[in-house]
Amino acid sequence: MTEEMKEFEPRIVAFVCNWCTYAGADLTGTSRIKYATNVEIVRFPCTGRIDFMLLLKAFAGGADGVIVSGCHPNDCHYTSGNFHARRRWMVFRKLLDFMGIDIRRIRFAWVSAAEGAKWADVVTETVGTIRELGAYKEYKKVADYLEQEVPNE
Amino acid sequence: MNELIAKVKSMFADDVVKLVVGFEKGNRGARPFFCKSAEEADKLILDEHCPNNVAVYLTKKELLGDGKVAFVVNTAALRSALELSVENQWKEGRFVFLTLNPGGEAVQLENAEAIAAYLQEHPLAVNDEDRQLLDSIRSMTPAERWKYWTYEMSKCIKCYACRAACPLCYCTKCIVEENRPQWIQPWSAPLSNIEWQINRAMHQAGRCTGCGACKEACPVGIPIHLLTLSMMEDAMDVFGQKPGEVNANGNMLSTFRVEDKEDFIR
User: What is the chain B residue with the closest CA to A79?
Assistant: First the structure.
């Protein structure tokens, strides 16, 4: 009950690529731009490496929102990783939507190493969206089914 | 069908093949049948009551032996065979395919090009039942869809019959057997059931030929074939690949075009 009474603070997990968005987020810090602190950044070699399962694992682990970001098209350090990633997300999003998983909670972005200010905007905007949507209880309930529901049955 | 059986018999007589894979009459409907001699060939059947996809045996080398093998199959299995050929899972000369066209005539297909040409004339048609269910799920709100699928998936007993029945699930090590890290919990639970089906669908993206064998195999009757079907329909406009169509230039997720259009990455 007390958990519910407290003001809701969104937990966001950001999956970013090493070469663009991670460097971009670094620039945000070195430029002393303030942005929401709700985000935990996970660094990957490339957006092409970000498996769709990682997004699901983030939600199962209690994340209310997810950010996926990498190099702009044609800017990939490995030439084509982000093109492959883009196709994967196009298909994955449709599948999630068909299954009723809330795709408004996944924010996809291209943030380059020079776009420190854009990264701050992306995070702040996402935190705002998730704050409106509230905690992702539906998914968490299913994820925690064995711990919570079974003993009560 | 008699024409087809005669063809099979002549193949045995000429020693072209040692084994023919098809269907025979079972206790309930048809069951897969490994025919090893001309005498047994009379048992072969092929009609709409053959829901299993025997193309699943194309990648089972231990069952087929070294010689040339003939497959007496329906159109759905031909689609799977073509996809497997695109994925370099069998070489020309290894198999010969026999099928009945809608007019009931026997058709013999020797290679992937011949199959592709035949399938051009016989595209996948989604049946009314599937179409209705698909439309009703799509017309739900996201919350209703989530409720629908969590309920359906809660029936899953993780028997992996869907995987075993699918000709395109031929990985020697599947993600569900992976335990470092353990992506999907092995027991049946609401979340891991959903995760398993999402994985199955994603690994089939652009490859699924829509035969429906997964749904036929499911002992608890979850309409899992709709996941890939819906995904393919949604991606149809963007990638120009219709459900059930085999893309000879590589799979949807292993290729890309610079000009792919999407509206959600900002």
Answer: B258
Enter the ipTM: 0.89
Closest by CA position to B56, among listed B246, B237, B209? B209
Element (H, E) at B107: strand B106-109
CB < 8 Å to A53, chain B: 183, 195, 199
Digit-coded pLDDT (tens) for A54-103: 999 999 999 999 999 999 999 999 999 999 999 999 999 999 999 999 99
> pTM of the prediction?
0.90
Contacts of A67 in chain B (CB under 8 A): none
Q: Which of A150, A16, A17, A33 is nearest to A76 (CA)?
A: A17
A6 contacts A61 by C-beta, under 8 angstroms: no
Question: How are beta strands B106-109 and B95-100 bridged, if at all?
Answer: antiparallel
B259 close to A (CB below 8 A): no
How far is residue B4's CA from residue B10's CA, in Å, rounded to a whole number? Answer: 10
Per-residue buried b or exposed e for A88-118, using 16+ beta carbons within 10 Å of the residue's own CB: bbbbbbbbbbbbbbbbebbbbbbbbbebbeb
How far from chain centre, in Å, is Cα B122? 16
Q: Do A91 and B252 touch (CB under 8 A)?
A: yes
Size of interface A-B (CB pairs under 8 A): 107
CB within 8 A of B213, min separation 6: which ones? B51, B52, B53, B56, B76, B165, B166, B167
CA distance B102 to A72: 50
Q: What does the pLDDT look like over B141-187, one tens digit per residue?
A: 999 999 999 999 999 999 999 999 999 999 999 999 888 888 998 88
- In chain B the first and final C-alpha atoms are separated, in Å, by 57
Distance CA A1, CA A6 (A): 9
